[in-house]
Design goal:
The complex is a heterodimer of chains A (about 90) and B (about 425).
Chain A (H helix, E strand, L loop, with lengths): L2 E4 L3 E4 L4 E5 L11 H9 L7 E7 L7 E7 L5 E5 L8
Chain B lengths: L4 H9 L20 E4 L3 H14 L4 E4 L15 E2 L6 H21 L10 E5 L2 H16 L5 E4 H7 L15 E5 L3 E2 L2 H14 L3 E3 L4 E7 L2 E7 L2 E4 L3 E3 L5 H8 L5 E13 L7 E4 L4 E5 L4 E12 L7 H14 L8 E12 L5 E4 L5 E5 L9 H14 L13 H4 L14
C-alpha cells in the first residue's frame, strides 16, 4: 500500500487520504473566453511520470498539502505546503 | 481459413497441424491510407470497419505491446447498454446490437453470453433512482425490468438476502440482454477479420512522434521507422494523453488504474452478472468457473498497471457483504488497466485540434462494451472526414461549449 507523508501527522496509509488532482492550476479571470474557461475546468496534462498534485488527509488532520509523485512508480519525490511554489 | 464445425473436424483428423495463423505477422510499410494507433479492441475494430464498411484496406494498426494486451485483456468482460441519456443509449445499444451479431460477422466465436445483469437496490431511495433509470432506458427503446426482492433471490440465490445483511437487498433491476463476452476473442477475432481484409497488424511498434507538414499530421515516427499517412486514428485508452502530447494538444482526460480480480474456478453458482452500487463491487462467473470481481477506481492518477491494496481490500469487503459464501475462496489473479476518465464519463470520438489526427478515447471504466461502436464510429470519421451521427454529441468541443453528457450510469457503480 502506498504511504503518504502528511506534513502534520507523518507517514500514513493511502486510504486515509483523498487525492484532489492536479495542483497549481490558476483560475483565469472572469473575462476569460469559453475556450480558456473550458481548459481551466477540464483539460489536464495527465503526465506519465512526475505529477504535482494535492491531497487531503481526510481521515486524519483534514489538512491539504501538495505532492510531487510519479504516476508510473508511485514514488513520492517531495511533500510541500499548499502555498509553496512548485518544486523545480 | 473459415472457422466452422467442418474445419474443426478436419483439424481434429489432421492432429490440429493444419491451422494457419489467425493474422499475418508483418513489418510496417512506409505508407498507408490510414493508421490506427493502439491494437486493443477499439483500434482493431476501427481497422476492420474501415476495410469492411468503407473499403479502405491499406490500413495499419500499430500496437506498442501485443494485440489485446492492454485494457482489452484487463476488463471484466461485461457488455450492457443500461445508460440514462438518449445520446448514450443510442451509442451503447448500437454496440450491444453489433456484439449480438459479431461472432457470425467476423467468423469468430466471441462467446457472447446474454445472461443478464442485475443491479441491486439496498434502500427505498435506490429503488426510486433505479425506477427512473429503468424507465429512461425503456423510453430509449432498451430492455429494462424492475425486480422485486423475490425476483432477485430467484436470479442470484447465493446473495445474502437476509434483512440483517450489512446492505439488505430490497429489489433491483435487470437488463436481460446484458451479459459477458470473451474479451481475448473480441481482440483476436477483430484482428483476424481485419487481417483477412488486408489490414496490417503491427505489434511491438511504439509511436514516438508525429510528422507534420504545414500544420497537418502527415505521418508517424515509430520504433520501426517513419510511416506516412494522411489519416491517423488514436485509440489508446489510458495513454491517450501521452500521444496527444506528442501531437501537441491536450485532452480533458485523467488516467486512473481500474482493478479487478478472479478467484479459483468453482462449480456453477452464479449465472448472471450482479452489480451493487452500494458496495461498489460487481461479480460474474466466467465459463471456466472463476468468480470475476470488479469495483471502483483507484482514485489518484496512475499509469502503473497494478491496483492498490487499499482498494482491493474494499472490493473484497464489498463482495463478501453480497456473497458471504465466498469468504474462503482463494484469489488467483489481480490486475489493473489504465483507464481514460473524462469529467462527464462519456467518450470522445472525432477530430482533434490537429488536422489529420482523430481520436477515440474517454471511455473510462466502460470501454469493453463499446468496442464495436467505438471502432465503427472512428472508422466512419477516418474514412469520410464526417462524424458518424451516433458520435456527433461526443465531440471534444463539448468541453468548451459546456454541452456535457453527464452519464452517471457509465460506470454502473459509484465512482
Amino acid at each position: 500500500m502506498m504511504q503518504l507523508d502528511c506534513p502534520w501527522c507523518g507517514k500514513r496509509d493511502e486510504n486515509e487520504f483523498v487525492c484532489g488532482g492536479t495542483t497549481h492550476i490558476q483560475r483565469p479571470p472572469l473575462s476569460a473566453s469559453d475556450r480558456d474557461w473550458g481548459e481551466y475546468l477540464f483539460f489536464r496534462d495527465n503526465p506519465k511520470g512526475l505529477h504535482l498534485e494535492r491531497w487531503r488527509h481526510a481521515s486524519g488532520c483534514g489538512q491539504w498539502f501538495n505532492l510531487a509523485r510519479s504516476t508510473v512508480t508511485h514514488d513520492i519525490v517531495s511533500v510541500y505546503a499548499m502555498t509553496d511554489p512548485a518544486p523545480r | 481459413m473459415n472457422y466452422s464445425a467442418w474445419s474443426l473436424l478436419r483439424g481434429a483428423l489432421a492432429g490440429h497441424r493444419n491451422w494457419s495463423p489467425a493474422w499475418a505477422p508483418c513489418e510496417p510499410k512506409s505508407r498507408y491510407d490510414a493508421v490506427i494507433v493502439g491494437g486493443g479492441g477499439h483500434g482493431l475494430a476501427a481497422a476492420y470497419y474501415l476495410a469492411k464498411n468503407h473499403k479502405v484496406s491499406n490500413v495499419a494498426v500499430l500496437e506498442r505491446g501485443w494485440i489485446g494486451g492492454g485494457n482489452t485483456g484487463r476488463n471484466t468482460t461485461i457488455v450492457r447498454s443500461n445508460y440514462l441519456y438518449p445520446e448514450s443509449a443510442r451509442l451503447y445499444d448500437f454496440s450491444l446490437k453489433l456484439y449480438e451479431g459479431l461472432a457470425r460477422d467476423i467468423n469468430y466465436n466471441i462467446m457472447l453470453s446474454q445472461r443478464g445483469l442485475v443491479l441491486l437496490a439496498h434502500s427505498r431511495h435506490d429503488l426510486d433512482a433505479m425506477a427512473r433509470w429503468a424507465n429512461a432506458m425503456r423510453m430509449n427503446g432498451i430492455d429494462a425490468e424492475m425486480l422485486t426482492r423475490d425476483q432477485v433471490a430467484a436470479l442470484a440465490p447465493a446473495l445474502d438476502l437476509s434483512p440483517t445483511a450489512r446492505l439488505p437487498i430490497v429489489g433491483g433491476f435487470t437488463q436481460r440482454r446484458g451479459g459477458t463476452a470473451r474479451h481475448d476473442a473480441v481482440a483476436w477475432g477483430y484482428a483476424r477479420a481485419a487481417s483477412r481484409l488486408g489490414v496490417d497488424i503491427v505489434q511491438n511498434c511504439e509511436v514516438r512522434g508525429f510528422v507534420f507538414e504545414s500544420g497537418r499530421a502527415v505521418g508517424l515516427e515509430t520504433s520501426l521507422g517513419t510511416i506516412r499517412t494522411e489519416r491517423i486514428g488514436i485509440a489508446a485508452a489510458g495513454h491517450s494523453s501521452v500521444l496527444a502530447k506528442l501531437a501537441g494538444f491536450s485532452l480533458p482526460v485523467t488516467s486512473y488504474a481500474l482493478q479487478a480480480l478472479v478467484s479459483e474456478p468453482i462449480k456453477p453458482l452464479l449465472d448472471t452478472v450482479v452489480i451493487s452500487p452500494g458496495t461498489g463491487a460487481y461479480v460474474s462467473q466466467s465459463d471456466k468457473g472463476e468468480m470475476v470481481i470488479g469495483a471502483m477506481l483507484d482514485l489518484f492518477p496512475s499509469y502503473a498497471q497494478r491496483g492498490s491494496f487499499a482498494v482491493e481490500q474494499s472490493i473484497i469487503a464489498g463482495t463478501l457483504a453480497m456473497f458471504p459464501a465466498f469468504s474462503r475462496l482463494r484469489m488467483l489473479r489481480q490486475w489493473a488497466g489504465i483507464v481514460d476518465v473524462v469529467h462527464d464519463s462519456s467518450p470522445i470520438i472525432g477530430p482533434t485540434p490537429v488536422p489529420g489526427i482523430y481520436i477515440n478515447c474517454g471511455w473510462g471504466t466502460g470501454g469493453f462494451k463499446a468496442i464495436p461502436v467505438g471502432g465503427w464510429t472512428l472508422a466512419h470519421v477516418l474514412a469520410t472526414g464526417e462524424n458518424h451521427p451516433l458520435a456527433e454529441p461526443f465531440q471534444l468541443e463539448r468541453f468548451v461549449s459546456g454541452r456535457l453528457i453527464d452519464e452517471a450510469a457509465a460506470s454502473g457503480i459509484a465512482h
